Amino acid sequence: MVGADKTPRLSDLSQARALLNGLTGMSAPGLKPPGGGHKVDRTRHGAVGRGLWMAALLVLATAGASAPAPAPAAPPRSFELIASRFKFEPDTLEVMEGDRVRLTVRSIDTEHGLAIKRLNLKVVAPKTGDPATVEFVADKAGIYEFKCSEYCGSGHGRMKGQIVVSPRTR
Ligand SMILES: [Cu+2]
User: Fold this and answer.
1) What is the Å distance from ligand 1's center to 98 Cα?
2) Span 14-52, pLDDT tens digits
3) Which of 26, 93, 108, 158, by CA, is between 20 and 30 Å from 117?
């Protein structure tokens, strides 16, 4: 810090004082140049103060820009879907634009699948009941229909659901 030196020099004190002047718009009591009688060229030191002030701002701005707090990776929005003849439960999922989404699909009868055509994405849930997981980023708002990808019987064609991706308000 400026002026933290045990044996301050005139320039340090003047700069500190000019800096304080710049910060508060008032003179800083107790920060007098040693030797009392010295004439202080206020114009010149004012300029130095402004320079310092600008430098301080620059340092702050630079520090802010170069060392951002690392954003912790947001956990995915997780959904567990139960697939059965002929539906997904739940069949409507709501997320926000930019969310990472994790779908875990489990069948309780026969083999099903979950396909999101718009995202070119598919996962098959085997009839053993083992969970099948798929993960993606919902980077665009809109409605994404999904449907069963594995023929599972007469109602297969109506085994559908949707993911509603809401726009993020700024
Ligand atoms: Cu099916």
Assistant:
1) 29
2) 554 444 455 444 444 444 445 444 454 555 555 555 555
3) 108
- Residue reference for tokens 């700069």: 15
The domain ranges of the chain are 10-66, 77-166
pLDDT digits (tens, 9 = 90+) for 143-162: 999 999 999 999 999 999 99
Domain over 77-166 is classified CATH 2.60.40.420: yes
143 CA → ligand 1 middle, Å: 21
What is the CA(112)–ligand 1 centre distance, in A? 5
Q: DSSP states of 128-146 as a string? A: T---EEEEEE--S-EEEEE
Q: How many CA atoms lie within 13 A of 117 on its CB side?
A: 7
Cα(129)–Cα(145) distance, rounded to whole angstroms? 23
pTM above 0.70, yes or no: no
